[in-house]
Amino acid sequence: MPDGQDAKIHPRPASAGAEGANAAAGASSPAVEFRNIDIAYGKFVAVRDFSLSIRKGSFVTLLGPSGCGKTTILRSIAGLVDISAGQIMIGGRRVDDVPIYKRNIGLVFQSYALFPHKTVFDNVAFGLKYRNVAKPEIKRKVGQALEMVRLPGSEKKLPSQLSGGQQQRIALARAIVFEPQVLLLDEPLSALDANMREEMRVEIKKIQKETGITAIFVTHDQEEALSMSDRIVVMNAGSAEQVGTPEEVYERPATAFVADFLGKANMLAGTVSRSDRPTTVKLASGQAVNVLAPRPLPQGSAVTVVVRPQKLAVGAKASANRLPGRVVSASYLGSSAIYEVDIGGKTNIRANAPIDGRVLREGEAIELSFDADDCVLLDEAGRRIS
Amino acid sequence: MNNRWTLYDPRLAWMLVAPVLLLLIFFLVLPIAVMAAYTFFTFVTAGVETSALTTANWQEFFTDSYYSGFLLKTLRVGAITALLCGVLGYFPAYFIWATSFRHKWLLLLLLIVPFWISFTIRTFSWINILGEQGVINVALLKMGIINAPLPMLYNEGAVILGLLHFLLPYMILNVYVSLEGIDRTLISAARSMGCTSAQAFREVTLPLSLPGLAAGLLLCFVLAAGSYVTPQLLGSGRDALFGNLIYDTIMSELNWPMGATLSIVLFLVLGFFAAIYTRYMGMSQIVKGLAG
Fold first, then answer.
1. N or C end of chain B: which has fewer CB within 10 A?
2. Whether the complex's predicted ipTM surpasses the cut of 0.90
3. Last residue of a domain, one of A235, A260, A285
4. What is the distance between the alpha carbons of residues B283 and B285, in angstroms, rounded to a whole number?
């Protein structure tokens, strides 16, 4: 595996020795490492055979729909849920048996979870107090942390006197002030309104960079994941579907689930009609398109052509695949427009294209086109062909 | 002018509260007002009083230490009972809140079960437990541990025990409701920052459940200090509380003006405590506790 990866997904190791060699190969041990963990609530298995290694100082996002196990994994790092199999390592040390209060983890919750009966100062100082830090030192560090979240001088306020965004800043200050080994963020932006959310996104990312802390971020919001992360772990039904940089998971989705979850990709079913290079796929909607297959595909094999709405251009381009159809609906977004286009065969596809001239109306004829290398091919099982 | 009625019409609101309001006026406010008037009537002889106005009843109350002694004792018994309720009631409430037992409602139901039996009968049941022929004495005698039955009934301890029996569910429910209101992620947060579970309890759970405990204390105090049946059944003459004094004054001495005076005194004293309390604790907490 190439060095310098922030996170990588392990296949189930053939032997423990191979794993050990892998860990030792890195410049330093990963900040957090999951080795084949299972987490079960009674009979319900929330997480199945999950392995992941997270490099120090990186920002990794667990992204997935609700119930995919992402929060459960986060809570398992903190020690708030017990794993039923596997190992979790923090800074190279096994923590399965380390109780939560000895794990040195910073936690930020969706609900802020500030102590309502304590002042901002006492909230932020809380972790330091339990680390036997001297009083003047506590004062200095709290001041610094508040400075960092841009709320200096708010020491004497009660959480109820702060806005949602301010409360989440205090919660962030509280979680980083004692310099934990890992910062865990459990959907910290979901309770904020849209404007505040964007501001906090930038803020969190900035603070993470400044402090160099390893951050694990849980969200169901693909935009948050794409804009903040060094690495994204796309989760579904208790296991990781894909691990990669934002560009990788977006541009080269490993599975149909990833393609669909990140940015509503168009999935066009078809069969390979000519296995040369470029490969020709006959779509279920009737058109034939040329695609670049990474390897020769047998004629007649079923594939899915995945095209992002942004990759579809309106109007014919030279040497491009053409999909003529009729506009079902059009939404004007100012700089671009989203068209839903019926291309026949009961197939509707979405195109998000810059506006050139005028916005087409419902019922008008439209021609969409995309290049052979602007799509990804999935096999019958929904896995990317590589 | 639009005369049509709407759902949020203030007239409709008044109509909806009217029955309760009338009920309260005629059966609570008016009787208390009549009682208040009675305190200034003249007592002639048992069962006879005239409406000639006098302050004699109030003078008697304020000068005779018999009455103030009774009042202080009543407040003391009320306070002891409330504190014991607080100490004994917090743990079951905490347990019900913290348990991972799936049928929590069953535990809460158990708290309500005693209310299905008449309060008087529940109080009487202590006679079968603590009395000379009660379970404990008979068992100890049979085992030869004691030679003569222990005097466990008809003393202040028995009265407080009976009051505890009566009031504990109120305390437990009050504390439980305030515990239930605590966001459990606060405890996770405290633990993640280095608290053991005992420290997290001290830092988060206990302070945030204090309003419920305080509401329970007030409720138990007022109900204990205003009790009448329990001291009547489980106490001797010496263990009578203010409520029993009122009963005797009205029903035995047939001195209605003095009985009214004592009633108003108890009403004002307990009302004073409730007012002070709600001023500092907030009425909402008590209402929440009662609703729980």
1. N
2. no
3. A260
4. 5
Give the CATH number of the domain where residue A88 resides. Answer: 3.40.50.300
Please tell me if residue B182 touches chain A, with a CB cutoff of 8 Å. no
Residues B118-155: pLDDT tens digits? 989 999 999 999 998 899 999 999 998 888 888 888 99
- Preceding peptide of B257 cis, ω within 30°: no
CB contact under 8 A, A101 and B203: no
The answer to whether position A128 is within a domain reads: no
Query: What b/e readout covers A293-304, taking b as 16+ CB neighbours within 10 angstroms?
Result: beeebeeeeebb
In a domain, A283, yes or no: yes
Q: What are phi and psi of A149, to 5 degrees?
A: -90, 10
pLDDT digits 0-9 by tens, A211-264: 999 999 999 999 999 999 999 999 999 999 999 999 999 988 999 999 989 888
Q: What is the pLDDT of residue A318?
A: 65
**How many CB atoms neighbour CB B242 within 10 A?**
27
Q: Which residues of A touch B (CB under 8 A)?
A: 78-80, 99-103, 105-107, 109, 111, 113, 115-117, 126-127, 130-131, 174, 178
Closest CA to B186 of B206, B171, B172: B206
Give the residue numbers spanning the domain of A253.
7-104+181-260
- The distance of B89 to chain A (nearest Cα, Å) reads 23
Cα(A83)–Cα(A183) distance, rounded to whole angstroms? 19
Assess B207–A contact: CB distance below 8 Å, yes or no: yes
The CB density around residue A282, as the number of other CB atoms within 10 Å, is 15
Q: What does pTM read for this prediction?
A: 0.79
Unique residue bearing structure tokens 């062909």 = A385
pLDDT at A320 over 90: no
Size of interface A-B (CB pairs under 8 A): 58
Handedness of CA B210, B213, B217, B223 (dihedral sign): positive
Specify the pLDDT at position A34.
94
Between CA B158 and CA B167, with CA B162 as vertex, the angle to 5 degrees is 145
CA pair distance A135, B84, nearest whole angstrom: 38
User: Cα separation of B179 and B202, whole Å?
Assistant: 13
The answer to whether A337 touches A355, Cβ cutoff 8 Å, is: yes
Query: How many separate domains does chain A show?
Result: 2
Provide the β-strand partners of residue A242: A234
Residues A342 and A280 in one domain: yes
Is residue B15 pLDDT above 60, yes or no? yes
**Are residues A191 and A323 located together in one domain of the fold?**
no
- Residues A185, A331: one domain? no
pLDDT digits (tens, 9 = 90+) for A20-40: 434 444 456 899 999 999 999
Residue position matching structure tokens 């920052």: B193
pLDDT per residue as tens digits for the range B42-79: 998 888 888 889 999 999 999 999 999 999 999 999 99
Structural class in CATH, domain B68-291: mainly alpha
Last residue of a domain, one of A260, A290, A305: A260
A100–B192: do the CB atoms touch at under 8 Å?
yes
